[in-house]
Amino acid sequence: MTEEIPFLGLKGTYQELQDELDAAYKRVMLSGWYILGSEVEAFEKEFAAYCGVNHCIGVGNGLEALSLILHAYGIGKDDEVIVPANTYIASWLAVSHNGATPVPVEPDEYTYNINPSLLERAITPKTKAIMAVHLYGQTADMDPINALAAKYHLKVIEDAAQAHGALYKGRKAGSLGHAAGFSFYPGKNLGAFGDGGAVLTNDTHLAELVRKLRNYGSGTKYYNDIIGFNSRLDELQAAFLRVKLPRLDGWNERRRKIAALYQEGLRQTSLIQPIIPEWAVPVWHLYVVRSENRDLLQHRLYEAGIHTMIHYPIPSHLQKAYSPMQLTQGAFPLTETIQSEVLSLPIGPHLSPADHARIVKTVCEILT
Ligand SMILES: *Cc1c(COP(=O)(O)O)cnc(C)c1O
User: Fold this and answer.
1) Which of 139, 231, 305, 332 is the most buried (most CB within 10 A)?
2) Which residue among 59, 63, 135 has the greatest number of ligand 1 atoms within 8 angstroms of its CB, and so is best to mutate?
3) Are 184 and 207 in contact (CB under 8 A)?
4) Ligand 1 mean position, distance from CA 367 (Å)
5) Taking a C-beta distance cutoff of 8 angstroms, is the pair 72, 65 a contact?
6) CA of 110 to the centre of ligand 1 (A)
7) Ligand 1 geometric centre to CA of 39 (Å)
């Protein structure tokens, strides 16, 4: 039996940082304080500084980060929010949870992110915001998105759940719109050991609102100013994230090396490889190739002990959850084609050079 190569080996992170993570665990456990304390406060400062943004509010997860931003902006019933057709369904769910309608727009054929040239025709008098998703770790083309948003007085919300540290024209994801939602789900580039998320913004008023909304609508304990929620990053996860944040750039660099080796090693194959616009410095949350024979390729890799994944196998508009929108097969043909062809190869800071070389060699063998 050949050794299995997992799609993502999360244990490697723990093994690399075991002493520091264990110390963080002890520190929090012995503090006797587990919700909204000094660890969350410190992490919020550190992550805001990392992203180059004034405010960071730790929340329960990435979906709620996006949802709380929309809620705080008063976006709800009878409102429309433009979302990428080609995204993870959470970007849509945040809109739906607020009673607003997601209005999908097709991606750019090469970057898979929302196509700015298709945005204007999707704007109606009901449009309140554009949700820009930085899919696979590469930012959306933000300048034209922000320009249109300014023209129509729309909010620009970044779904930065896959883009911790990614750059657009030298600026960090999370600082590119009015507000951004991050996820610290374990598999993300900056992941906790459980759920977690954050809202990033330079909008002081929004920051104050989200800070209350995440905590029962309360700024001062037992004084409730607004109808709030309970969505908080917890102390333990914040303490772990503080250990990992200083490593993020190094880990992203490691991902870039692996991506470059994939580009080089798979150049002779029939695969469509990721394209990097000159303004983007991606962080390679995923390394996604395209093949018309995707399912066969995935199956053959699996037989060779190499685990891959599909991001995403069913577009949001064809999910049962969105059947009331009555969007059928063919409604977003480019998204449907992309999602029928994409395959995510293993990538991560702890993927060994030997395993990586084996993946490249096996893909080349299967395709020749
Ligand atoms: C992971 C992810 C989310 C949701 O984050 P959770 O923390 O899992 O709720 C939202 N959008 C995108 C693009 C994601 O990849």
Assistant:
1) 139
2) 63
3) no
4) 32
5) no
6) 22
7) 23
State residue 197's pLDDT score: 98
Q: Which two tokens stand for residue 176?
A: 């590119």
Q: How far is CA 99 from the centre of its chain?
A: 22
- Identify the three-state secondary structure at position 221: coil
Ligand 1 center from residue 66 Cα (angstroms): 9
Predicted pLDDT at 368 = 87
Contacts of 288 (CB under 8 A, 6+ apart): 112, 136, 274, 311, 342, 343, 344, 345
Residue of 114, 159, 189, 195 with the most ligand 1 atoms within 8 Å of its CB, for mutation: 159
Report whether 72 contacts 203 (CB < 8 A). Answer: no
Q: What is the pLDDT of residue 178?
A: 98
Task: Please state the atom number of ligand 1 nearest to the C-alpha of residue 187.
Answer: 1
Mutate to test the pocket of ligand 1, among 133, 183, 190, 316 (most ligand atoms within 8 A of CB): 183
What dihedral angle (degrees, nearest 10) is formed by the CA atoms of 239, 243, 245, 248?
Answer: -140
Please give the Cα distance from 51 to 181 (Å, whole number): 12
Q: What is the pLDDT of residues 320-351, one digit of tens each?
A: 999 999 999 999 999 999 999 999 999 999 99
Residue 223: φ, ψ to 5° = -110, 110
Asked if 217 contacts 202 with a C-beta cutoff of 8 angstroms, the reply is no
| pLDDT tens per residue, range 28-37 | 999 999 999 9
Distance between Cα 88 and ligand 1 center (Å): 7
Q: What percent of the chain has pLDDT over 70?
A: 100
* pTM, full prediction: 0.98
Question: What is the Cα–Cα distance from 223 to 242, expressed in whole angstroms?
Answer: 30
Phi, psi (degrees; rounded to nearest 5) at 56: -130, 130
